[in-house]
Structures are given as structure tokens and as C-alpha cells.
Amino acid sequence: MKKRLLLVALTGVSASIAHAQSSVTLYGLMDSGVSYTNNVRGFNSSTGGSHGSSDFRFGSGLMQSDLWGLKGTEDLGGGLKAVFDLENGFDVGNGTFSQGGREFGRNAYVGLSSVTAGTLTLGRQDEFMYDYVSRLSFENFNDKGGNAFAHAMDNDNMAGTFRIDNSVKYASPNYSGLVFGGLYGFSNQAGEFANNRAYSLGATYENGPIKAALAYTQLNNGPYQTLERNNSGAVDYIGDSQFTAQRQRTFGGGLNYSFGAANVGFVITDTQLNNGEDFSGGTAFAGATPANVRFTNYEVNAHYNLTPALTLGVAYTYTDGRYTSADGAAAPKWNQFSLSSDYALSKRTDIYALSTYQHLSGGFALGADGIQREFEGAGTYAGGTAASPNQVVFGVGLRTRF
Fold first, then answer.
1. Fewer CB atoms near the end CB (10 Å): N or C, the chain?
2. SS3 89
3. What angle do CA 279, 285, 289 make, to 5 degrees?
4. What would the pLDDT profile of 18-66 be if each residue is shown by its tens digit?
């Protein structure tokens, strides 16, 4: 009898040790509210003109996109762990999947992590403009910012519009505050190694009140993308990518400084599209002729903790755009002002209010053929394209994490 009791006790201890060495975590975030946008553009086919209308709507993910996921680790010994993450994006308003209907559209990867050698992961993952630079922007701000504040068309992926499929990613250990990494996304096409591939590099540094980051991402895609939109390469152009272009290059950096209850930051990013055709809204930039497009974004932001529970934020972004094609040229300029207030009801749950104003100058006029050229009106990321150079978005919402 004593031997049986001892065997049961040892079995229990063994199970506890195995459980301590491995873990699986269920996590998630839900964000919903209501929003108002003025001057949302509609098109009148009979007159060939556009008109603006007010839009009141239920808003899902005004601040952060809804998600749930499973992540886990297994201790392999010697400081080495197996890691995985499966993360789903969805719309809390109707329960449908985001990211083009993928079940795990936000993340799906497995890998190995070492205390001394870093982390190597394989699967669908974020690139380093989002991983590092966006953390310093008003759109993300260490996973507390707002999708509604994204730069024009989210041209620099600060709001995390796309991920990289079929990718291998490395992130270094933390060297006294410095972390760096690289990513490569495979084309998965025989004889077309360079078609629809992607690569990204980045580094971030944190020391006391200072945070800094640099990153570069490039997407190489087939000429004019006619045959490549449904392939299984690095970027899927159905419900995932923001732009369709022969080549997309984005470079950026940022700096944040904290003092007392305040934090101030500056972010600059530059995105260049070669032979660009359209973006995720499905409308060509101008007619059917591919264009070279460039967006340079300059953002200054600040946050202040008025009380331990209440945080106020403000940001200004100037986007300098350049557009050239056989149909003509334009130099659109976006001025965007953003405000936020966030009140923490607990560590997990908060309520917020936000506002964004955008003014566009130097855009296209509506073509004589009735084609809605996309630089003719302001276009906030949350509100859509406006019928005139100005647009305002207001929103209030509730966010909770688990």
C-alpha cells in the first residue's frame, strides 16, 4: 500500500513538472463602439459627379482590431524553447473573420527561441515596420494606439494592414536594450523565385526614457499583378495587402522620449510604389494606367497621463505624396490632426473617445470619363474617401482584453 501511495505521489510530481515546463495561453481583445464621419463620398452615375453624406455606424476596432489567439511554449532544456502563436482577427459587429476570411489571419507560426541565440519562427508573421516602428506611432503606441489614426491609406503599415506569408523570421536576444531582426517571405513559385517575395529588416533600442526604432520592408510582385493576385506567395492580394504594385518599398524610423507623466515622439516613414495599380479598396489610382506613387509621412505625437486612469493623446501627421503616370501627375498633401482620451476602468478594460480631421490639397479632379480618381478627396482610414478635401471622424468605444 505504501509503495502504491509513493508511486501516485511521484506521478503527481512528474505531471506538475511537465506542466511547469510547457504552457498554452488563450488571449484576446475586443473593441467596439460607434462613430460619425462627415462628407463620405458617393458617386452619382447619372450626373457623373460625387456627393458627400454623413455616416453614423457601429464601429469594430476603432482603436485596436478585434482578435483572439493561442500561444504556447515548451521547454526543451538548455535555454531552448519551442514556441507557437495562432492569432485570429474578427469583426465583433458581425462575428466574421478579418484578413480576407483567414482563420488565423493575424499570426500563424511555429519556431524555436533561445536565451542566447534569439528566436527563429516560420509561418505567417508581421514585418518589422509594424513590429518596431509602429510601436512608436500614434496608430499603435505599444499596442494601445488607434487604427483610426493611420496615415493616408495606411501606406506604411503602421496600423498592420498586411502580414507576410510563407516567411522565415529571426529576432535577436536583447543586447542591453538593442534588438534586431530580419524576415524573408518566399514566393513559392517554381521558376519565379523573385515574384511575390518579401523581405524586411529592423532594429529597436530602449534605454530608460528613450525608445528608438528603424526598419525597412520590400515587397516584390509580378508586373502589373494580373496573374499573381491569387498565388500563394509572400503577400496575398485578396483581402490582405493594401496596395497592388510591381514593387513596394517602405523605410521608417521613430523616437520616443518619456518624462514624468508625459511621452513625446516623432516618426518618419517613406513608401514608394513602382508600377502601382490600385489598393485594397479596389479602385485604381487613376484610370487603368500603372503609376509610380510615393508617400512620405512625418508624424509628431504626445501622450499625457492626467491621472493614473486617464490618458490624453494628440498627434499631427503631414503626408507628402507624389504621383506620376501616363495619365498625368499630382502632388497630393495630407494634413491630419488626431485626438484621443482613454479611461481605464481596470487593468483589462477601458473606454475611449477619439477624433481625426484630415485635409487634402493638390489632389486629382474627377476625370471627364467619370472615373473617381482617388486623390480628389480626403480619405481617413476609418471614414473612407470624402467628397471634398476635408473629413472629420468622431468615435467612442469600449475595449477589453483577456
1. N
2. strand
3. 115
4. 445 789 999 999 999 999 998 887 655 544 455 678 888 898 888 999 9
Low-confidence ranges of the chain (pLDDT < 50): 1-19, 46-48, 223-231, 282, 368
Q: How far apart are the first and last CA of the chain?
A: 45
Rounded Cα distance between 284 and 150, Å, is 21
| CA–CA dist 125, 105 (Å, integer) | 9
- Residue 241's CATH number: 2.40.160
Distant-in-sequence, close-in-space partners of 251: CB < 8 Å, separation ≥ 6: 215, 216, 269, 270
Domain contains 90 = no
Backbone angles phi, psi at 157, to 5 degrees: 65, 25
Tell how far CA 185 is from the center of its chain: 17
In terms of residue numbers, what domain contains 370? 40-59+125-166+175-401
DSSP output for 266-302: EEEEEEEEEEE-EETTS-BSSTTS-EEEEEEEEEEEE
